[in-house]
Amino acid sequence: MTSDTSLTKEEIAAWRLSSLATAGVAGELAKFSGWLMTALGAALTFFVANYDSVSALIRISHLRFALFLFSGSMLAGLIALWLTIPVKAGLAFSTEALDLRSQDLDPQAFASAFSSLLIAPYRRLFKWRLSSAKAIDALSPIRSPAKLSQYLALLVIIQYLGAIAVVITLAIGVKV
After folding, report:
1. Could you tell me the pTM of the whole model?
2. Of 156, 158, 163, which is closest to residue 69 (Cα–Cα)?
């Protein structure tokens, strides 16, 4: 944790811009991922409920492969939805951290007081994160949520491509 509370105007601009981008992306990606999981779940329910009719129209090997792709797509979606939690929490933390920098807090006392509020696993994670942060890295509080939001975007893309692959697999498997 750094004791330097001064930021350059470029660092403040980068911090605010990254915060805005992260906030915009995290909410919309979570909504899209949830919608996609709902649509895929409805389609799977339809196929399971009408298995006899569907299996007469689509080859069983393609149904199995589509189920495999569906599982992967849903897993990517669940991880993406889970990632929105640390992204939004980190974003809220980073916004407040920017305001706290102007208060000339003692970094060691603040870290001790903050870690005393956390349960054991989170306390260890917080202390590990503090020790791994560069002492001169002024943008450290926003870097983690910004990177996680990029992982979130990649997971939603994987989820979306998996959903498209399910549809293509089922279409190819149609018995003519």
Report:
1. 0.70
2. 163
